[in-house]
Amino acid sequence: MRISPRVQKILSNYDSENPGVKARLAQLLMNGRLGGSGKMVILPVDQGIEHGPARSFAINPGGYDPFYHHQLAIDAGLSAYAAPLGQLEVSTGKLYGQVPTILKLNHSNSLSRLKEDADQAIFGSVEDALRLGCTAIGFTIYPGSDQGLEQMEEIAELIREAKAVGLPTVLWSYPRGGNITKDGETAIDVVAYAAHLASQLGAHVIKVKLPSAFIEQKEAKKEFDGAKIAIGTQAERVAEVMRSCFAGRRIVVFSGGAAKDTASVLDDARAIRDGGGNGSIIGRNCFRRPREEALELLDTIIRIFQGKE
């Protein structure tokens, strides 16, 4: 596999890792139409578990079939496809090796009543990821939740286990629960903090939501104001999140978030690019659109990250 100078520079930030982890990170960064650019677009499809099948797929019925999503990632030329154990067990037997896969190990569900103590159940294992030929494992933590510390201990152990067999970790770090307000879940100080926590846990790729200009913590507001940290634009807020991940030494991708119009999705991609982010991990804004429309949207996002739009 050829490794571009840009990807070699990114991998130099992971020099403590073993060759297996670095090789698989290189696979993620060298795959698809953005391969070699240092940018990534990943298709994550765990919404059937998180929100229920009808809420996720009824608008575009092809989405009930795990092959639909896996093939969409392949046909769009994406960097990777992330999915739960059950979905990958259906599709990887025929579509193995055509796009890097990420086994998402833990999940919540909308039937749960957990609020302040938001948590997720573990569905899969590092062994499952190896068995299915995955390039990485994925995991979600909820910083701020009353269960957050236990989640961090769970993923710290899983990261160690995955590293030992040469698998990197993609860590969803979503502030939620505890005393965090709804606005605080996407506040710039809280999102940057969540990204920093993921970095400290040893995650190789960090996934966070795009932050708003709201500041949740009074103590943080004093520092943001005193240091005159620029957060007025989305690109500036992306740059602050990147800075919070060891001064940009970690790969950070940003969630596509709730379903939205095409112009908003593309504006988000431009802000991620202009703020120095490594890309998008965008699910429902793709698979809830008709297939051809989704492919067109992904094509434009890729072109934005290539600097062509």
UniProtKB/TrEMBL annotation:
CDD domains: DhnA
Keyword Cytoplasm in annotation: no
Class of this enzyme: lyase
InterPro entries, per database record: Aldolase_TIM (IPR013785), DeoC/FbaB/LacD_aldolase (IPR002915), DeoC/FbaB_aldolase (IPR050456), FbaB-like (IPR041720)
Any one GO molecular function term: fructose-bisphosphate aldolase activity
Signal peptide range: none
Record Pfam families: DeoC
Family according to the record: Belongs to the DeoC/FbaB aldolase family. FbaB subfamily.
Name of the protein described by the UniProt record: fructose-bisphosphate aldolase
Organism lineage: Bacteria, Pseudomonadati, Pseudomonadota, Alphaproteobacteria, Rhodospirillales
